[in-house]
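Cross-check.
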Amino acid sequence: MWIGLALTALAAVHPFVDRATTHLPTDHIRAGHPTYAHARVDSAVTTYLVLLSVIGALGVIARLWTTRAVKPAKRWARPP
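Predicted model, tokenized:
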């Protein structure tokens, strides 16, 4: 469970590292929409990062909740 949590957190942080190093999301949006101005591409990348951040945060929260739920003392988390 803890390894899954660490991988989920890593996946949530990866888009920010990618934007700071390779600019792959920017290049991808620019290739798909060549008529977009620079400001509009930056806005699209920011929106993309916000969405991925929210999904990553929900994933981390779900992993923490699941880790807590499957402890042996939790009767309601037992399989049927």
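Helices lie at 2-21, 24-32, 38-69. The radius of gyration is 18 Å. Passed to J.P. for a second look.
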